[in-house]
Write a structure and sequence with these properties.
Layout (H helix, E strand, L loop, with lengths): L2 H4 L2 H10 L8 E6 L4 H16 L7 E7 L5 H18 L6 H8 L2 E5 L5 H18 L4 E5 L6 H10 L11 E5 L7 H14 L5 E3 L7 H11 L13 E9 L8 H5 L2 H19 L8 H14 L8 E4 L1 E2 L1 E3 L2 E3 L17 E6 L11 E6 L6 E8 L19 E7 L3 E9 L7 E9 H4 L9 H9 L8 H20 L8 E2 L6 H8 L19
Bound molecules: 6-O-phosphono-beta-D-glucopyranose.
The site of 6-O-phosphono-beta-D-glucopyranose has 4 residues, from loops.
Length: about 525
């Protein structure tokens, strides 16, 4: 067990007392969807972890709004049960002192999001809290289904709750999905921007809360050795993989009209693409970074259906467990044409990347869980090894492992010991766990904290979201007009459809195997 896991309640509170400079400013978080899954699984555990890390100020409050008839006490109890179960599953136990610090500051407000009266009552509760806290900063967290994003913000505006002053802010966190295509994302942006200014809106993509995703910028720009090689002169191609070992679980209804492309590509995979491929920003200022991302998305070529593969899983075995076909999942049509797998070849139209393909793939129920980016460098010229036994020079591959085995490795060639010149592929490996104690985190801590301190770098700007949708819109349309005729076309537990292999094979390339291995298999 790590130091972070074992830190006692006293220690956690002491940290909070001794590090006032790291604390967020006084604020009230209002969570819409207080009883929902997101609040239970991610928002509250993240707030609890922030308390333990000493990041929240004493003048802090949480107001939970939802339709169910509940009291503050029953709300807190249900969250506490969830948190206990969550911590138990990770071999930990609840830090009672940190949890009671939070519950003392929590209040439940029953209300229908469609009723103006809910918002006038919320206004009253916030006024009272502001008086007690002596601070009027409010973060509205929309942990609700996407159809409520626009209406809730409109109601907040009508009730005068989004008005800021010179000394106080009002911000809104909007969850994914932000629209389901370009026109709907534009419409949602327009609706929100009628009430809020852009700097009040924090659009979440939870991939940006992952430590390893944030580390990509540090890797590229805090090290002198990578950036000079980071271009078409030295890089042959890039593979971005987000492979999952879960199916659609209980989300059939949502997934049926979403599919793998919408669910993962213009958001999560594009965040990885942006981190790896954008031009260096002039600073880490939010707008400097987000402008570079937007520019990159604008440079993505329209994706032709011939450069894309879709798949849907049939029954199979995933990590030794029987998995049923997508079409047999709850709330899924028996003849569903929804894709649970997508692979794409992207071209980027700029000086740095012209001619360098970026291959992206993501899918449910694949053979292993891994999210990684593999940068394949160009092969060394073969000339030196003429007349030796060397037939093949492996290319250098820099692999950034986003999850679950966070780290980075570089494969390169070495001479196998012996009289002959024989070349072997070997690997240098950096694993986070070898250097740092694991931090207990659900991935939302940084995002919530950043929003409280007003740092929007890891959030999406309106134009960035639209540029990402724009890049995939042609393909969304093409797939909608020509439903797949060969579904299901990959077995649960496999590496995906064969056509995805052909997508690379026609360019003389191959996907790296999808493996959950944590280190070089040769080492064991
Ligand atoms: C969500 C998608 O946004 O991201 C899910 O809706 C997907 O379908 C999930 O499983 C993947 O996130 P993570 O952090 O588990 O890799």
């Amino acid at each position: 067990m790590s130091e972070a896991d074992t830190i006692g309640p006293k220690a956690a509170v002491t940290t909070a007392m001794t590090a006032p400079d790291r604390r967020a400013p006084p604020a009230i978080i209002t969570i819409f969807g207080a009883r929902g899954d997101l609040t239970k699984r991610l928002v509250m555990p993240a707030l609890y972890n922030l308390v333990r890390a000493g990041r929240l100020p004493d003048e802090f409050a949480i107001v939970g709004v939802d339709i169910a008839d509940q009291t503050t006490e029953t709300w807190c109890n249900s969250l506490s049960e969830m948190l206990q179960a969550f911590l138990r599953a990770r071999g930990g136990a609840i830090d009672e002192q940190a949890w009671s610090w939070l519950t003392q500051r929590m209040e439940y407000l029953r209300g229908d999001f469609a009723e103006p009266e809910t918002f006038s009552r919320l206004g009253g509760v916030l006024k009272e809290r502001e008086r007690q806290n002596n601070a009027a900063n409010v973060l509205f967290y929309l942990a609700v289904a996407d159809r409520f994003f626009g209406p809730v913000v409109e109601q907040l505006g009508r009730a005068g709750l989004t008005r800021q002053s010179d000394r106080t802010w009002r911000r809104v966190i909007v969850e994914k999905p932000f629209g389901h295509d370009l026109p709907s994302a534009e419409a949602l942006n327009a609706q929100l921007l009628k009430v809020l200014s852009e700097d009040q809106i924090y659009r979440i993509d939870h991939f940006l809360g992952k430590e390893t995703v944030q580390n990509i910028l540090v890797l590229r720009f805090a090290n002198g050795i990578f950036e000079p090689l980071w271009n078409r002169d030295h890089i042959d191609h890039v593979q971005i993989t987000a492979a999952e070992i879960v199916g659609v679980e209980h989300r059939g209804r949502f997934y049926e009209h979403t599919g793998a492309l919408r669910d993962m590509v213009p958001n999560h995979l594009f965040q990885l693409l942006a981190m790896i491929a954008m031009e260096p920003p002039i600073s880490f200022d939010a707008d400097a970074v987000r402008s570079k991302k937007t520019e990159l998305f604008h440079a993505v070529h329209p994706i032709s259906p011939t450069d894309a593969v879709r798949g849907q899983y049939s029954a199979g075995v995933v990590l030794g467990r029987q998995a049923s076909a997508y079409r047999r999942e709850p709330d899924v049509a028996p003849d569903s044409k929804t894709e649970t797998y997508a692979a794409l070849k992207l071209g980027i139209d700029n000086w740095r990347w012209a001619g360098v393909p970026f291959y992206l793939r993501t899918g449910k129920y694949l053979s292993a869980r891994t999210t990684e980016i593999a940068v394949h460098f160009r092969q060394a010229p073969h000339v030196l090894f003429r007349g030796t036994a060397v037939e093949h020079l492996p290319a250098n591959i820099l692999t950034l492992r986003i999850q679950p085995d966070e780290g980075l490795s570089l494969s390169f060639s070495a001479k196998r010991p012996g009289a002959e010149i024989e070349i072997d592929g070997v690997e240098m490996n950096f694993a986070y766990r070898d250097y740092y104690a694991p931090v207990v985190s659900v991935g939302y801590e940084t995002l919530i904290y950043d929003c409280l301190i007003g740092d929007a770098t890891m959030f999406q700007r309106a134009d960035t979201v639209e540029a990402a949708w724009c890049a995939v819109q042609d393909l969304l349309d093409a797939w909608a007009h020509a439903p797949a005729g060969d579904f299901p076309n990959y077995a649960a537990g496999s590496a995906g459809p064969d056509a995805a292999d052909r997508l690379l094979a026609r360019d003389g390339r191959a996907w790296l195997p999808i493996t959950g291995l944590t280190s070089n298999p040769r080492a064991s």
